[in-house]
Each structure stands twice: as structure tokens, then as C-alpha cells.
């Protein structure tokens, strides 16, 4: 099964959640588009967090220098991101694959296509990541609406930090279930990833 992790924006915790999902399902991890890597790539971070678990980190299809929207980063390097090329590069494995997206659903990949189009082309199910901040309910429900309008199969929400009131509102209005809440931690190391994977494993598998 291909599971695509997207969020309501940038910096909401997709990489940490992707690592937790990878551990919970004993899956492999793939981030096909990396934009910006001066401080290391997301794949490198996940590999470090999951060291010794047996999960494989598959290489990026596009590794772009500029930390910006993928279509802008690609344009600067004279590259055009192709959804067809990404689909042709999907790892051929006999286990679940966690695919981490860039930004949110309506992040452009080229002059005509968005992250949401990539999800549809990959025939992936979706995990939505949300984090509490002023305006996050709006951003979460806009994300949910795009999923519905495009017919994307959503597994549910993973919330970063613990703000039950806003979680309940988003679940109610979106009509997508809550998978788990990941508490804030100063140290998102392997032990933290493992503990959160164990905490959400049963609920996650019940929703698959």
C-alpha cells in the first residue's frame, strides 16, 4: 500500500509523522521531491531516526538546492518536475511505502500540476498532518475540501501538539477520523519515534 503524507502547510511536522508511520507499519520511506538540503535532507533525518529498524529510505527523484516551492526551485535549476517520471520511479517493494510530500496539496510541481495531482497519479491513500496555530482550522478544512473534490482517499488526521478542542472541530467539520496526536517533544529521536509508533499502531491499522 502507498500512503502519502501531506499537511496543511509547511513546518507542520510531516517528516516526524512520516517516520512514525514508517515505524508503525514497518514500511519503507520515500520523499520523491526534496527542495533545499543545506541542513540535510528529510530522508537523511528519517534514516537516522529509524536506524537499525530495517526500513529502507529510497532516493529522491528530484533533489533541488533552493528551499522553496518545488516548481520555483526546479525552474531555478532548469528542471521541470514530471509526475510521470516520479510514478515511473516508485520503488518496487513488497511492503507498505510511506511517501512524504512537499508542503501541502496545492503546492505547484510545475506549470500545470499540484501535489494533489501527484497523489492521484500514485494511487495513494492519504494521511493529513495538522498543527495548532491561529488559522489552522481554516487551513485544515481547506485541505480536507481539496481531498474531497479530487476524490483522494483519506485515512485520517495526525495532529501535532495536544489541543483537543481544535482537533475535535477539525474532525467534526472534515468528517475524516483522527488517527493520533503526537505530543510536542524537544527530542524527536529514535526512542520518541518508536514510542509514538507503538501508541498509534493499533488505531492506524484499524483505519487501513
In brief:
With 208 residues, this protein is of the alpha/beta class. The protein has 8 helices and 9 strands.
List keywords for this structure.
alpha/beta; 7-stranded parallel β-sheet; 8 helices; 208 residues; Rossmann fold; single chain; 9 strands; globular
Strand order of the largest sheet: 4-2-6-1-7-8-9
Mass-distribution shape: globular
- Look at the structure and give the mean pLDDT: 96
**CATH topology, anyone?**
Rossmann fold
> Can you identify the CATH class?
Alpha Beta
Q: Terminal Cα separation, in Å?
A: 9 Å
* Class based on secondary structure composition and strand pairing: alpha/beta
Query: What's the number of domains?
Result: 1
Low-confidence stretches: none
Cα-atom Rg, whole angstroms?
16 Å
The helix count comes to 8
Name the helix and strand elements from N-terminus to C-terminus, one letter apiece: EHEEHEEHHEHEHEHEH
Spell out the CATH superfamily: P-loop containing nucleotide triphosphate hydrolases
Amino acid at each position: 500500500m502507498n500512503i502519502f503524507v501531506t499537511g496543511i502547510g509547511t513546518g507542520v511536522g510531516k517528516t516526524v509523522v512520516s517516520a512514525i508511520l514508517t515505524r508503525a507499519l514497518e514500511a519503507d520511506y520515500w520523499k520523491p521531491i526534496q527542495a533545499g538540503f543545506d541542513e540535510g535532507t528529510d530522508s537523511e533525518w528519517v534514516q537516522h531516526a529509524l536506524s537499525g529498524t530495517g526500513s529502507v529510505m529510497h532516493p529522491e527523484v528530484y533533489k533541488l538546492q533552493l528551499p522553496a516551492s518545488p516548481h520555483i526551485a526546479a525552474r531555478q535549476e532548469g528542471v521541470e518536475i514530471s509526475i510521470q517520471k516520479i510514478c515511473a520511479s516508485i520503488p518496487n517493494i513488497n511492503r507498505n511505502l510511506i511517501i512524504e510530500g512537499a508542503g501541502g496539496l496545492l503546492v505547484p510541481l510545475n506549470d500545470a500540476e499540484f501535489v494533489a495531482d501527484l497523489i492521484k497519479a500514485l494511487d495513494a491513500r492519504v494521511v493529513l498532518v495538522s498543527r495548532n496555530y491561529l488559522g489552522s482550522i481554516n487551513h485544515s478544512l481547506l485541505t480536507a475540501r481539496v481531498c474531497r473534490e479530487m476524490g483522494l482517499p483519506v485515512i485520517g488526521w495526525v495532529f501535532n501538539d495536544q489541543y483537543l478542542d481544535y482537533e475535535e472541530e477539525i474532525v467534526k467539520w472534515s468528517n475524516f477520523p483522527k488517527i493520533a496526536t503526537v505530543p510536542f517533544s524537544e527530542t524527536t529521536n529514535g526512542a520518541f519515534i518508536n514510542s509514538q509508533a507503538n501508541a498509534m499502531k493499533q488505531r492506524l491499522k484499524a483505519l487501513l
